What we know:
alpha/beta
Amino acid sequence: xxxxxxxxxxxxxxxxxxxxxxxxxxxxxxxxxxxxxxxxxxxxxxxxxxxxxxxxxxxxxxxxxxxxxxxxxxxxxxxxxxxxxxxxxxxxxxxxxxxxxxxxxxxxxxxxxxxxxxxxxxxxxxx
Length: 127
Ligand SMILES: [Cu+2]
């Protein structure tokens, strides 16, 4: 039983290490400029505002958003379509970077906000 516990502990450790290396790979991706038309974008939040407020993504394909919250205040990104229906809600984070996996958007204009501070707004155009 003790041996089993140790084995499970090692497996858990391995899983954590694997998760960490995956996270650092994602962070390295944020240093690259957004690739035009491929759908991957970076959005920075600082001083209770989005530093990027106009984002263009490719319609019909999942979008990866690298979100860099440089504030100690909690922020996230929630995306609504033109009718106001929420199509994506990202986890709320403070002083950290996360990568959001947004499901494919059909062509159109979307609004994104921080749900904690709804005055933080931007526009996403899927085309
Ligand atoms: Cu916020």
